[in-house]
Structure formats: C-alpha cells, structure tokens
Amino acid sequence: MIRSVPRSRLFDALYLVYLVAFFVYLALPLLVTAVFAFNDAPFPSLPWKGFTLDWYFADGSGGRTGLFHDDTLLSALWVSAQIAFWVTLCSVALGCANAVLFERLEFRGKELLYLLMLLPLVIPGVILGVSILVFYSGMANDLSRSWGIELDVFRPGMTLVVMGQVTFITTLATLVIASRLRKFDRQLEEAALNLGATPVVAWFTVTLPWLMPSILGAAAMAFLMSFENFNTTVMLTGSDTPLTVALFSRLREGSTPVLNAVALFLMVASALLALAVTRGDSEKS
Amino acid sequence: MRSSASRLSLWLLLTPFLLWIVLLVLLPHLQMLRVSFQVRESWDTLDWGFQQYQNFFSESYYWRTFVRTGVMSLFTTFLTLIIAFPIAWYIARLARGRSKGLLFLACLIPFWASELVRTYGWMILLRESGVFSAWLQALGWADGPVEMLYNDVAVIIGLVYNGLLFMVVPLVTTLEGMDENLVEAGYDLGGGHFTVLREIVVPWAMPGIVSGCIVVFMLTLGSYLTPILMGGKDSAWFTQQIFTQFITRFNWEQGAALGVLLLVLSSLIVWIGLRVTGQSLRKVMG
C-alpha cells in the first residue's frame, strides 16, 4: 500500500474512517476534560448547565473554591515546579556529559557502560522509586538507630523525589543530546582549533551552540516528564506533596470540576512549552 | 601531555556518569535485592531467608495478580501495535506535505497531559454518570445509566491510550526510512498485500516495532494509576501490591521481594523479545 500502487475506493474509504476514529479516540478524553472545566455544575458530567469561570476564580464564598484560591493545589503546583526545575538542571547537565562521553571518547568497557546507561529505560518507574526509598531512607533509619545521626535529606521528601526522577530522565536527556552530537561535523571544531582556539573555547563557541536546540528540547522534555510523573514520585514524596500526588488523592475523594480546571491548565502550559521549543528549533535551523 | 589531557577529560566526564549510575541505579537495586532476603523476627532483629518469596508462591492472590498483570500487559502491547501500525504507515508513507507534519503532531497530543489527566478524561467518558452513558440515554439506546468503567475492557482502553504515542513515533521513524522500491518489487513479483506486509514491511520495521513494544510493555507493566482508577474490584495490578506493602503495611521486606519479582519478569520478557526478534537493546533503544 504505497502511493504508486493502486488502491480500491472501498479500501481508501475504510482507511479514512479508521484514521478519523483514531484521532477522535486520541482527542476525546482530553476534550471532555477541558470542556467540563467550564460547566456551571458541581460535578463534571452532562447535562451542560452553562458557562462559568468559577472553577478557576471562585474564592470559596459561594461554596465553590476555584483553582487560583485553592491553597493546597497551589502549593502542590509550586512543589512540582521546584522539583521539575532541579530535575531539569541535573538531568540535562548529566545528559550533556554522558553524550560527549559516549559519542566522542574511546575507552575500555564503553559498550558495557552504554548498556548500563540504557538500563533505567527498562526498569519500571515504581521499582526505581522503591529501590531508592529502600536504599536511602533505609540508610537514614539505620544511622538514626545505631548512632543517633539524623540524615533528614534522605527521608522521603523533595530531595528523594528529585533523585528518583533524575535516575530515568537523565537517560532520555542523554539520548536526545547524543543523537544531535552524532550529526555534528567535527571539521568545524578542528577548524576552530587550527585557528588557534583552545579546546575549551572551541567547545563553547562551536560545539555547544550546535547542541543548543537539543539541549533546550531535552530540558523541555525533562521538565514535562518530571511534572507529570506519578509512579516514581509517589513512593518518595514526604509531607510536601507534588501536584500529581495531590490530584490523585483529590480524585479518590470524588471528582469536582476543579480537577478539570487544573488538568486544562496543565495541558495548555505543556502545549505552550512544547510550542516554544519547536518554534525556537525551527528558527535555529 | 596530549594523553594526560585526554585522560583528564575522560575522568571528568566519567565521574558524573559513574556517580549517577552507581548511586541512583546500581546500589539502590542491590540493596533492594538484599532487603528482599531479610526476615524480620522482632522489631530489631533480622535473619536471612526466602520467607518473602515463599509468601509470594503460597499466597495465590500474589502470583495470580502477577500472572494477570504480565498477560494483560502483553495483550495491551500487542493491541497497541495493531492499532498504531496503520496510523504510522499512513503518516510515514501516504500523507504528504503539511498534513504529514500535522498528523504526526496530533499523535503527540495525549503527551500534553499526564497519565492522571488522561485517565481522568476516560473516567468522565465511561462512568455511570459519564458522557457516553448520557449520550446513549439521549439517543434512546439505553433506559438507564450504563456503567462502562471499572472493568478490564476499560483498563485496556486506558492502557492502550497511554502507550500509543510511544508506539507511533518509533514506527513512523523506521517506516520513513524504508525504500518504496522494495515494496513495489514485492508487488511486481506477484506478492499480495499480506505477503508484501509479512515479507518486506514487517522485517524492515522490526527495530521500530521492537523499540515501541518494549517501551509500551514497560509502561503498561509498571503503570499504577490507570488500573487503579479504571479497574474494578477484581482487576488488581501487581504494582498496587508493591505500593500496599510499602505505604500501607510498612512491610519493606515483602515489598522489596515483590519489586524484585516484577523486575525479573520485565527483564525476562524484554530479553525474550529481543532474542526472538534478533534485535539488540543498543540498536532499538540507543
């Protein structure tokens, strides 16, 4: 079935129906989630009762608390943003170093180390969270019991969440940056060296600008992945709950249109982030 | 001088890598393995033994859920592949120009929302007071509210939805690199659609198929939100039991053992998949 091979009318029509059905399937859940963020009813379901912005702006006086007056959700949003910031910083920095290590240098055991680098991709997120909890939190417990030393950093909390997420997001960042580094023309760097630049100067003026689109792309991906992660996060979180965990416990209590409001807010924010990165990307090239 | 500089840069780059892989991946997993062989006798004495693993095999609830999770994950992966393949084929080979890019972007839409939001969307659609139920009643096809949530079909719908993106992208990438002359030659030599698909297209797309399947399988096997929120009373997922041991019962030893078992299952199935299809992890993931 390629363009040059003739197809029957019926086949084409069926194919089209399939495509439409597929994209409806993709869009429908997100569409209804978005629409019910504006329904003037206390429960996100039909019938449609009219348009309202209460689920964003109501201040609690009329029995409704909108997202922007909901302190629990807002502080959870802030916690998630902080976690995502640190995860992005660490995993992109590690990703850059790893990319150069595996694309540019030759050393013994490289194949084995490359496989180790890929390992976090084939470990379920829950297990990553559990193993870090057992190792670090267990260590903090043992130290406290045996010597009375309190290592609170390693108790469930923001530090552990960042560590857990960095574990697998680093691999993804490495793959993104390495695939761009592979396409780099090394003669450009050699030209810089011939013209008298030191290796460090050549790296910052020639190689790094070339890598920039992939670094930004990796950063956006890392930020989104961290913000949306649940499986690893829930094992490691302490008293300061990130957004996905807060939303999950809300959802278990029962669904309200505030959840739709948060969901739509997140969708728009991630779409804008994705758009900004692809736009910057196309301007560069 | 030159060699000492390159040695220095090697160590400078190797150090962060080793810190990351040893401190965040290797040591924690070894510790998890160690803890799974511990047996708590009283609050401060420990012994070594296979107690946690014996519990797993003697409690039918554990291993039934384990088998169920594995089988359903494999089925979900297969279903995702079947659903995604025609879409990827259309984007890679039949669509042209602008529509190609737009369709590809449309496949990425679900990724704008987290797994929690996607699952929530399906709950709004499928539950008793949900949108589908209301539509069915409005059309006169149902007399009362219809409950479509809280069963295995709902779970699979949600899981396939979560995995589609990770299947479509690698498939499109490999199919785009295929030479159409191969397909034409297949037809010229008298092959039918099915023969061409089986003898030419699938072997060519194998790296993409394996890569997509591995990612979708891992995501499905390790997923928690979708089976919990969309599944019924009987549709337990294995990750749920790990969560229960750690968070509700504080039984780390048992939880670690269940974690090790899940890791063994996933590694085993990925390894078998790579073996059967003759691919390597490096080729399909790197």
From TrEMBL, chain A:
Key word Protease present: no
Family annotation (Pfam families): BPD_transp_1 (PF00528)
Transmembrane among keywords: yes
Keywords carried by this UniProt record: Cell membrane, Membrane, Transmembrane, Transmembrane helix, Transport
Membrane protein topology class: Multi-pass membrane protein
InterPro entries: Bact_Polyamine_Transport (IPR051789), MetI-like (IPR000515), MetI-like_sf (IPR035906)
Residue ranges occupied by any ABC transmembrane type-1 domain in the UniProt entry: 77-277
Transmembrane region(s): 12-38, 83-101, 113-137, 157-179, 200-225, 258-277
Stored CDD domains: TM_PBP2 (cd06261)
Domain of life the protein comes from: Bacteria
Cell location: Cell membrane
Protein family (similarity comment): Belongs to the binding-protein-dependent transport system permease family. CysTW subfamily.
Record's protein name: ABC transporter permease
Species name: Marinobacter koreensis
TrEMBL record, chain B:
The keyword Thylakoid is assigned to this record: no
Domain (ABC transmembrane type-1) ranges: 66-273
Domain of life: Bacteria
Pfam families in alphabetical order: BPD_transp_1 (PF00528)
Topological type in the membrane: Multi-pass membrane protein
Keywords per UniProt: Cell membrane, Membrane, Transmembrane, Transmembrane helix, Transport
Record localization: Cell membrane
Segments crossing the lipid bilayer: 71-91, 103-125, 153-172, 204-225, 256-274
This protein's record includes keyword Flavoprotein: no
PANTHER family found in the cross-reference section: INNER MEMBRANE ABC TRANSPORTER PERMEASE PROTEIN YDCU-RELATED, INNER MEMBRANE ABC TRANSPORTER PERMEASE PROTEIN YDCU-RELATED-RELATED
Family label: Belongs to the binding-protein-dependent transport system permease family. CysTW subfamily.
The name this protein goes by in its record: ABC transporter permease
Organism encoding this protein: Marinobacter koreensis
